[in-house]
């Protein structure tokens, strides 16, 4: 003989469990949606750092942007460190800008390939950040850059750069 009361109890238990699972799933999806919308409205430190690099370095230096945009993203005491003949050769921002302006004059009228970057890492610790990126022209990697930034009252600025030039 089959105990029909037991079957009904199990059926009702499964029905209650299914409702509970549906409520929990709906609540989790709702919370995820709200957090995604809220997260999407605020710029993260990584976003702010990327904006400085893309405006001042990629756009300003490599893609012919304004010198003012370069100066806005680089701190005046910036140094680019180059390894030459087993020695470090520092280059100031102002000396780099002179080289950029001279290069633009020499290549006036000659279109240059647009530079693009691929971020390998962005690490922040309070008001300090390091960024490692690959720089491409014509889809070919030409540099791996290691940049150091500090966050000043006016925002993130690049203070130093070391790099690896990919052999041609």
What structural class do you assign from the helix and strand content? alpha+beta
Count of helix runs: 4
The parts where pLDDT drops under 50 for at least 5 residues are 36-41
Tell me how many strands there are.
6
C-alpha-based Rg, rounded? 27 Å
By CATH, the architecture of the largest domain is named Roll
- Record the strand order, biggest sheet: 2-1-6-5-4-3
Shape: elongated
Q: What's the order of the H and E elements?
A: HHHEEHEEEE
Task: Give the % helix.
Answer: 40-55%
> Average pLDDT value?
87
Under CATH at level 1, the class of the largest domain stands as Alpha Beta
Largest sheet: 6 strands, mixed
Whole-Å distance between the termini?
Answer: 86 Å
Query: Which fold name corresponds to the CATH topology of the largest domain?
Result: Nuclear Transport Factor 2, Chain: A
In total, the number of domains comes to 2
Strand composition percent: 35-45%
Signal peptide: 1-40
Organism: Flavobacterium laiguense
Pfam family, one: Lumazine_bd_2
Protein name: Nuclear transport factor 2 family protein
Textual characterization of the structure:
By secondary structure, the chain is of the alpha+beta class. It has a 6-stranded mixed beta sheet with strand order 2-1-6-5-4-3. The chain starts with a helix and ends with a strand. 13% of the residues are buried. InterPro entries: FrzH/put_lumazine-bd, NTF2-like_dom_sf. Keywords: Signal. Pfam families: Lumazine_bd_2. This is Nuclear transport factor 2 family protein.
């Amino acid at each position: 003989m089959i105990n029909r009361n037991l079957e009904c109890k199990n059926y009702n238990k499964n029905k209650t469990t299914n409702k509970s699972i549906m409520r929990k799933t709906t609540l989790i999806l709702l919370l995820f949606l709200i957090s995604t919308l809220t997260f999407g409205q605020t710029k993260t430190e990584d976003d702010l750092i990327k904006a400085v690099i893309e405006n001042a370095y990629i756009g300003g230096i490599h893609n012919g942007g304004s010198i003012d945009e370069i100066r806005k993203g680089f701190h005046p005491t910036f140094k680019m460190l180059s390894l030459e003949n087993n020695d470090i050769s520092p280059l100031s921002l102002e000396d780099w800008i002179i080289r950029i302006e001279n290069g633009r004059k020499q290549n006036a009228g000659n279109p240059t390939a647009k530079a693009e970057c691929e971020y390998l890492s962005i690490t922040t610790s309070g008001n300090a950040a390091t960024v490692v990126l690959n720089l491409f022209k014509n889809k070919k990697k030409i540099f791996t850059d290691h940049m150091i930034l500090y966050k000043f009252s006016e925002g993130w600025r690049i203070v130093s750069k070391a790099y690896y030039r990919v052999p041609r």
